[in-house]
Amino acid sequence: MNSPAQASSTPKLTPNMGLRERNTFGFDAQAEFAYEITSAEQIPAIVTQITEQKMPWHVLGGGSNVILPQLLQGATLLMNIADQKIVASNDDETLIAVGGGVNWHQFVSWTLDQDLPGLENLALIPGTVGAAPIQNIGAYGIEVGDYIESVEAFDTKSNAFVTLENKACLFGYRDSYFKQNPHRFIVTKVVFRIPKKWQARIHYADLAKQFASNINPTAEEIFLAVCKIRTHKLPDPKVIGNAGSFFQNPIVPNEQYETLLRKFPNLVSYPDAPGKRKLAAGWLIDESGFKGQRMGKVGVYENQALVLVNHGGGTAQDIIGLAKCIQDKVRTDFGVSLEIEPNIL
Question: How many C-beta neighbours within 10 Å does residue 87 have?
């Protein structure tokens, strides 16, 4: 357990702060009040003030995995803690401590600059380091939880800083102890454990195609390939608002998978835990006829059915309405339920 000293002064509370640049959907949202957090030491005083004033509160990092309403009531804590450094290294592994406000993709790029491969499959995932363990972000066969040594957070239940080791984080598919206990922890630092022994992970179909003639790519080559694939499939939020993958890939029992496969021979899926199979949500949505479709000011991206987009002027209600239509159709067509990945605030 860590105990950073409480800051002598609380950061300024800014009323009516625009959040359009703080959410990748580009929704014209506004925070009733906002704090800019640049160090963990500021948090106890902020939480005390919020508690005394009985204000609802939310933490916002890069805004890449959230659906914001037009008015986010109460206090919005803008996570801007920025720091990354190697804290230990031996023949087997390297430990890196990273602030919760560090841009995730920039951190992955930095690890390769430091000759510390391992996270390259997670390149170009939008958002901040602090949000990564909450969602247990993953892509192309890797989950961030596999590389996390510990997470430092402020526990609003005990009103103290705590450090949760990897096992205590209860990482699962797009899940964690933090996600299971919403509105309790404010993640301030993540310590990553990067093994010195590295092996290329290119078994996912898109990467396998990229390296069909190169079965021993370098980490840098995988990093660039992932960036290329994601750039093709996922629109740049600066050009068209989106939150990346909008639905989780559903996991079904093998029996249900076999039944679906007989009916849909082209069904895309991946191995999961024993007795289970992970289905490609994008394929299900595409087969249900939504790819490239538009509903008012929002729609489904033309290059990747898993991505919902804001064409301009859309709202949280518009996106949620479209998502419900997709969920209903996929459930009717395949008997499979899709879960929304972004947090609806």
Answer: 12
Q: What is the pLDDT of residue 13?
A: 82
Question: What pairs with residue 71 in β-bridges?
Answer: 30
Which helix (H) or strand (E) element contains residue 284? helix 281-287
* Whole-Å CA distances, 219 to 115, 120, 199, 202: 9, 6, 9, 10
Looking at the domain that runs over 235-344, which CATH code has it been given? 3.90.78.10
Query: 39 catalytic, yes or no?
Result: no
**Domain range list for the chain:** 14-79, 84-195, 235-344
pLDDT, tens only, 155-180: 999 999 999 999 999 999 889 999 99
The matching CATH number, chosen from 3.30.465.10, 3.20.20.105, 3.40.50.720, 3.40.50.300, for 84-195 is 3.30.465.10
CB 17 within 8 A of CB 34: yes
Instruction: Please report where in the chains the tokens 């506004």 appear, as a residue.
Output: 30
152 in catalytic set: no
Q: What are phi and psi of 238, to 5 degrees?
A: -75, -20
- Can you name the CATH fold of 14-79? 3.30.43
3-state secondary structure of 293: coil
Least confident of 101-110, 206-215, 313-322, 323-332: 206-215
Please tell me the distance from the alpha carbon of residue 124 to that of residue 121, in angstroms, as a whole number.
Answer: 9
The verdict on whether 294 is a catalytic residue reads no
Which positions ≥6 away from 90 have C-beta within 8 Å?
none
Please identify which of the residues 20, 32, 41, 174 carries the catalytic annotation: 174
First to last CA, the chain: 30
Which residue of the set 109, 150, 176, 245 is catalytic?
245
C-beta of residue 39 within 8 angstroms of C-beta of residue 7:
yes
Q: What is the pTM for the complete model shown? A: 0.85
143, 152, 287, 341: the catalytic one is 341
Q: What is the model's pLDDT at position 10?
A: 65
Query: For residue 106, what are its two tokens?
Result: 């920039």
